[in-house]
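Table S4 entry, D-alanyl-D-alanine dipeptidase.
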Amino acid sequence: MLACASAQAAPAVSPATTPAQAGMLDVATLAPGFSLDMRYAGSDNFTGRPVPGYDAPRCYLLEPAAQALARVQRTLQAQGRALRLYDCYRPVRSVQSFVAWAHDPADQQAKPRYYPNIDKSRLLDGYIAEHSGHSRGATVDLGLLDCREDGCVEVDMGTGFDRFDPLAHTDSPDITPQQRRNRQLLLDAMRAEGFANYPMEWWHYTFRPEPTPDTAYDFPVR
């Protein structure tokens, strides 16, 4: 999901207009085999349309977080697995568009797939917030692939990405033992390189300590 909710005060917005100015790297260039499924650059997301601020399906993170994620990828590849990336750096303008969407009760096209068991008005409580950790350039949404046979297949995590539901809580008691093992495998790999999980979303991780915890960014993803 997008959640990455934060009740903190709004961080200062950097004047950076490019990844280089912000000190961010394109993660996919740092290690082979990343699977890019950048949902907000297209229509396959909970809003049903491309999100403002996403002009290309790229994954940018601040250099320390990007290098750490590349190390996770290399470790998993040695085990016959790989990472699928759903979202990385998120412009402030994109977060603002999510909040506007959440305040529009008429737009319910994505409810059956993304929040069938939660009223849309409740999405602002823990799932969608005015300020996102993604905008600080050290948070990533991702899943796991099994590449031990021919090709790579998505690992069953119990829900899809961006599912607004208690079933997506990392430690949900209602998933199968295999799904729990899959979540734990991802959790262990990410923790080993300094990433902390957001408990309401199995896919959501933030690099600690954050390189710029008081700064957000708003350049478009291109």
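Residues 63-78 form the longest helix (16 residues).
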